[in-house]
TrEMBL record:
Presence of the UniProt keyword Repressor in the record: no
Primary enzyme class: oxidoreductase
Annotated Gene3D superfamilies: Cupredoxins - blue copper proteins
Description of how the protein assembles with itself and partners: Monomer.
InterPro entries: Cu-oxidase-like_N (IPR011707), Cu-oxidase_C (IPR011706), Cu-oxidase_fam (IPR045087), Cu_oxidase_CS (IPR033138), Cu_oxidase_Cu_BS (IPR002355), Cupredoxin (IPR008972), TAT_signal (IPR006311)
Catalysis performed (reactions): 4 Cu(+) + O2 + 4 H(+) = 4 Cu(2+) + 2 H2O
Listed name of the protein: Multicopper oxidase CueO
GO molecular function terms attached to this record: copper ion binding; oxidoreductase activity
Length: 483
């Protein structure tokens, strides 16, 4: 199956193209008319072999975002292959049912390759999920949201430059499954919508325009225990959302729009100003439509929303290796330097608190280095180094970061916000689905997030990074050595 890149209406075909070979034919479903990679469907317990042929003119390697696989098939940049080479992945699917992502992970080129089309959804099914009888086939629809910048000739542009690296690169159009102004034609029945934020930096605040709550079935790591109704849901790059959308009481001809609602606090005022001056057109946190669902057909449908979805096996803090001393992940923000644990990504640079004993469960705390993060001083820079509240740079550069950890999913234990950032936080915090298993968590400015994550089965290097892909490429990535 050819994963070719053809973006927008009149845009030229990009030179990028990559090929994924596959096993049984039915594991792949192309999204009609889309430049995205085909949906790869796998079953829990399945053994898979995937050949990645690099037909780009540059290095690449594919990562299976959300899957728990051995380190040597996790898409670490050190395994990047050059043009014309093939990488063979072999692994067993051990994840529960979920929607994962496959996307490139080469050193400093993840954002540009994702932007130009090398991203797709991977859906894992299992027996627990199958027993629920959720809408499937044409009633299960992937919704991959991306923003892209088009010029007046409708040509695709990717030119992050300094501002785009600092604050993320933002487009002026929203694409769903590769289509601008996406119209979904639906019947008056229940659907399962599988959202994936495949944007490099843009964060969405998803809501139905008529105030209908969003019925959440699951998140990154699969189904929740029971459905949850939310007024809106925040979806940051790399995050997924599984939604029950019931159109059964709607009349033919009516429509429902999914919008991204207004919110604040995720990009500093300074960054917003710069982006506006560059005519980005669609400011982050403004209100705009994502897609329209139009009811075109009356049908009778007996599909019912199950009241119980799943059983999640959870850990408690006391199961963790060091309950009193969480593994720190510090976020520091300086000029052209977004860092984790005070250091940029580098090979062979694992620090003491980035070493994790195999088969342990770890309490992890993600927090902002209040001192402002001037670089290389490393692990010593934590909270308390600042000047009461936010340091100079920290205040000016503070922004939201979707932090992603490779390997097994984690549970969110707690979130807290400092008083200086309560205002922006209040515009987003009803939109976090904290009850589900996650692999990516949006960390707002001034926010501290605690999570519990197991590190089982596989030794080796497992990355963690900001999924604002411009930040990742700038080096906002570190790795755990599981040993
Ligand atoms: Cu989706 Cu390491 O990334
Ligand atoms: Cu990942
Ligand atoms: Cu970031």
């Amino acid at each position: 199956t050819e994963v070719a890149v053809l973006v927008g209406q009149k845009t030229r075909v990009q030179q990028y193209s990559a090929k994924l070979l596959h096993g049984p034919e039915q594991t792949l479903t192309a999204i009609p008319g889309s430049f995205l990679g085909p949906v790869i469907r796998l079953q829990k317990g399945q053994k898979v072999r995937i050949h990645l042929h690099n037909q780009l003119s540059e290095n690449t390697i594919t990562h299976w975002h959300g899957l728990h696989v051995p380190a040597d098939v996790d898409g670490h940049p050190m395994y990047a292959i050059s043009s014309g080479q093939t990488f063979v992945y072999e692994f067993e699917v051990v994840n529960r049912a979920c929607m994962a992502i496959y996307h490139p992970h080469p050193h400093e080129a993840t954002a540009t390759q994702v932007y130009h089309g090398l991203v797709g959804a991977m859906i894992i099914n299992d027996e627990e999920e199958a027993a629920l009888g959720l809408p499937s086939g044409e009633f299960e629809i992937p919704i991959v949201i991306q923003d892209k910048l088009f010029d007046s000739q409708n040509q695709l542009i990717y030119s992050p430059g300094m501002h785009g690296s600092m604050f993320g690169f933002y487009g002026n159009r929203i694409l769903v499954n590769g289509h601008p102004e996406m119209q979904l034609e639906v019947a008056s029945r229940a659907y399962r919508l599988r959202f994936l934020n495949g944007s490099t930096a843009r964060i969405y605040k998803l809501a139905w325009d008529d105030g209908t709550p969003i019925t959440v079935l699951g998140v990154d790591g699969g189904l929740l225990e029971q459905p949850e109704n939310m007024p809106y849901v925040m979806l940051a790059p790399g995050e997924r959302l599984d939604v029950w959308a019931d159109f059964s009481n709607r009349s033919v001809g009516s429509q429902l729009v999914m919008r991204s609602l207004a919110f604040s606090g995720v990009v500093p005022a300074m960054g917003m100003g710069m982006m506006r001056s560059q005519a980005y057109g669609l400011p982050v946190g403004s209100d705009y439509p994502i897609f329209t669902a139009r009811i075109t057909q009356k049908v009778t449908d007996s599909t019912k929303l199950p009241s119980t979805l799943s059983k999640i096996s959870r850990y408690s803090i006391s199961d963790s290796h060091n309950p009193n001393q969480p593994v720190p992940i510090t976020i520091s923000e300086g000029h052209m330097q977004m860092l984790l644990n005070g250091r940029p990504h580098a090979y062979n640079d694992v620090q003491d608190n980035e070493r994790i004993p195999l088969n342990t469960v770890q309490l992890i705390e993600i927090f902002h280095d209040q001192g402002g993060g001037h670089g290389m001083s490393g692990m010593g820079m934590g909270r308390g180094m600042g000047m009461g509240g936010m340091g100079m740079m920290g205040g000016m550069m503070a922004m939201a970061h979707p932090i992603h950890l490779h390997g097994q999913s984690f549970q969110i234990v707690s979130r807290s916000i400092d008083s200086a950032n309560e205002g922006g936080y209040a515009t987003v915090n009803q939109g976090f689905v904290n009850s589900g298993l996650k692999d990516t968590v949006l960390v707002m400015p001034g926010e501290t997030v605690r999570l519990i994550k197991p590190f089982q089965d596989y030794k080796g290097l497992f990355m963690f990074h900001c999924h604002n892909l411009e930040h990742e490429d700038m080096g906002m990535m570190r790795e755990f050595l599981v040993e």
